[in-house]
Amino acid sequence: MPKQIILDALNLNASQYEPVIDEVASTLKKILHYILLKGVDVFVYILRPLYIILIVYGLIRYTASGLNQRNRNVLVGGLVLAVFTEGILPILLQYLK
């Protein structure tokens, strides 16, 4: 009996498997798309407080000790993260949806 099942499976035409393979590929594509969108959402959720903290820290250091290289780098880094998070990532999200 098992021998007959194996022989029957080997004799099947490949066109019988194509719809199943297409459906599996489509489902995997939807799952990966969902994971990518949620990953970007989590990334934005993490970056928002981070750039706010960097900018506030840089401004506090600037008012306390003047504009030196480290304070300038912290401010610029916070501003770059803000532009990336609020400008580039929403465009990327619209493209992915």
Task: Characterise this structure.
This protein is mainly alpha-helical and 97 residues long. It has one domain (2-96). The protein has helices spanning 2-11, 18-65, 69-96. The longest helix has 48 residues, at 18-65. The model has no long low-confidence stretch (mean pLDDT 83).
SSE blueprint and pairings:
Elements: H1 2-11, H2 18-65, H3 69-96
Please give the largest β-sheet: none
Strand content: under 5%
Distance between the termini: 50 Å
Mean pLDDT across all amino acids: 83
| Rg over C-alpha atoms, rounded to the nearest angstrom | 26 Å
Spans of at least 5 consecutive residues with low confidence: none
What is the number of beta strands?
Answer: 0
Alpha-beta content class:
mainly alpha
Order of helices and strands: HHH
DSSP summary: helix tally? 3
Question: Features of this protein?
Answer:
3 helices; 97 residues; 0% strand; mainly alpha
Summary?
The chain has one domain. The chain has three helices and no strands.
